[in-house]
Amino acid sequence: MIWSRFGGIEWNGFSQEALASLQTHTLISVGDQDWVRLDHALETFQRIPGAELAILPDAGHFTLHEEQEKLLPVIENFLNAPLVRLPFATTTVAYQPGCTR
To answer: Which pTM value belongs to this model?
Structure first.
């Protein structure tokens, strides 16, 4: 009964405003063989401030269940990384004296 109700829910994803308003450290992970399109994952990643994107090689949608050894190190690095990162020196960010990575 619950699955028939769940399957009947039409979900159209998060709005652009909802994604842009996220205030939490976010990891988006997809496999390069995932049924989630890479362009959709990239678009979602770009709309979440400060998000990180991991594209796992030779991985599908159920990697956490089927091949944990591919995803768990990515999650561990994400959780152990400092929340504040210094920007790379690029043409838009520029070099910042005294700041190193």
So the answer is: 0.67
